[in-house]
Design brief:
The protein has 235 residues and is mostly helical. The protein is 66% helix and 0% strand.
């Protein structure tokens, strides 16, 4: 729901808190089982006031999706156009995706389970956002194939392998556990890249490249919800 004229930053902060609360309730109770009254009680608003912020219950599914895919798409687009090897960009995109999965587990749960409850234009919006993200991955895989680092993989299938390995992490991961987003990204990409490689012996050390990127460009955060400052690489 776009900000309406006259709505200041206080309105947007409150709206985002409502979206986050809704994601938690939907993840715990299920979208269909959670009523507007349930959400109203959770955020301390009457039904009329709640609709002022969210428009409709159905709109919340779009908002929950956008809370994740909005910043993720923006960061993925920035990563995709870096002047770096495609394998490094895939590795950075992987960590960016896992970072937001760790932080927004409830949102990811709803995103994966309940988007089919939408219909018409709302469903088209969700599917378009998902497709846009997958196209970025396909593009990077294509580059890796064209430069000879990856064998001639079936690109649609390789994209699904990448997406499925990452997206299903929400089903078991614990943010306070022993594995963080950077570690999982390194493990996932090692598995995928070795499987896709034209020659495993000639694969670059992507973890070393990722570590060097982070050291040289500390202002280019992989966290999708952090500001990416337009600065040159550190010396």
């Amino acid at each position: 729901m776009p900000r309406q004229p006259g709505h200041g930053p206080g309105f947007e902060i409150r709206r985002q808190k409502i979206i986050d609360t809704a994601a938690s309730l939907f993840a715990q109770q299920g979208y269909a089982a959670t009523s507007i009254n349930d959400l109203g009680r959770a955020v301390g608003l009457a039904k009329g006031a709640l609709y002022y912020y969210i428009g409709s219950k159905e709109n919340l599914l779009i908002e929950i999706q956008s809370r994740v895919l909005g910043p993720l798409l923006a960061r993925a687009q920035e990563i995709a156009v870096l002047d770096e090897a495609p394998l490094l960009r895939l590795r950075l995109l992987s960590e960016s995706l896992l970072t937001i999965i760790f932080r927004r587990l409830d949102h990811i749960w709803v995103y994966e389970h309940d988007y089919r409850s939408l219909g018409g234009a709302e469903l088209e919006t969700v599917l378009r956002q998902r497709a846009d993200f997958e196209l970025l991955i396909t593009g990077l895989l294509t580059e890796a194939v064209e430069e000879g680092t990856f064998r001639a993989v079936e690109l649609d299938l390789a994209t699904l392998q990448f997406v499925n390995l990452h997206n299903h992490t929400y089903q078991w991961v614990r943010p306070e556990g022993r594995w963080d987003a950077a570690f999982l990204s390194g493990e996932y990409c090692s598995t995928l890249f070795r499987g896709f490689a034209a020659s495993v012996a000639e694969l670059p050390d992507v973890e070393a490249l990722a570590a060097e990127f982070k050291r040289a460009r500390p202002a280019l955060h992989l966290d999708p919800e952090a500001t990416w400052e337009a600065v040159s690489a550190a010396s």
